[in-house]
Amino acid sequence: MKRLPRTFGCPTELALELLGGKWKTVILAQLKDGPVRYGELRRRIPRVSDKVLTQCLQGLQERGLVARDAAADATVRYRLTAEGRSLRPLLLALYAWGEAQADRLGVTILEQARDAADV
């Protein structure tokens, strides 16, 4: 994983460094309501490749935002850590803003994605 710079111009720059990229925030949003198995994440985010999903999950774990829990029956679930759960208000606000933009732009949001993001 790439090391963080020691200085940033503003807090927003740091936040975007931690959460930036095409898929990290989408993954966090899918985990905001509770633990999810890898296969379920793949179904909820069909446009992400296995390689990228795995890399993003590892990066989010390294940053302390996501935890990987393995059960005795070999099932693995990903969940937000306490630090990751602190992002919930931000994730909900991004969802609401994106929903408003979809309406304004005439973009369709898949119902499966809507159902997964409902609060």
Give a verbal description of the structure.
This protein has helices at 11-19, 24-31, 38-44, 50-62, 82-85, 88-105, 111-117; strands at 36-37, 66-70, 76-80. The chain has a single domain (11-117), classed as Winged helix-like DNA-binding domain superfamily/Winged helix DNA-binding domain (Arc Repressor Mutant, subunit A, Orthogonal Bundle), CATH 1.10.10. The chain has a three-stranded antiparallel sheet with strand order 1-3-2. The longest helix has 18 residues, at 88-105. With 119 residues, it is mainly α.
Please give the structural blueprint.
Layout: H1 11-19, H2 24-31, E1 36-37, H3 38-44, H4 50-62, E2 66-70, E3 76-80, H5 82-85, H6 88-105, H7 111-117
Antiparallel strand pairs: 1-3, 2-3
Keywords:
single chain, Arc Repressor Mutant, subunit A, 3-stranded antiparallel sheet
Please provide a brief summary of the model.
This protein is mostly helical and 119 residues long. It has helices at 11-19, 24-31, 38-44, 50-62, 82-85, 88-105, 111-117; strands at 36-37, 66-70, 76-80. A 3-stranded antiparallel beta sheet has the order 1-3-2.
- CATH homologous superfamily grouping: Winged helix-like DNA-binding domain superfamily/Winged helix DNA-binding domain
Provide mean pLDDT, rounded.
89
Which of globular, elongated, flat, extended, rod-shaped describes the shape? globular
N-to-C series of helices and strands: HHEHHEEHHH
Distance separating the two termini? 32 Å
With strands numbered from the N-terminus, the spatial order across the biggest sheet is 1-3-2
Count every beta strand, where a strand is a DSSP E run of 2 or more residues: 3
Largest sheet: 3 strands, antiparallel
Q: From the alpha carbons, calculate the radius of gyration and give it in angstroms.
A: 15 Å
- CATH class type: Mainly Alpha
Look at the helices and sheets and give the structural class.
Answer: mainly alpha
**Uncertain stretches of 5 or more adjacent residues:** none
Per CATH, the architecture is: Orthogonal Bundle
CATH fold annotation: Arc Repressor Mutant, subunit A
Number of helices: 7
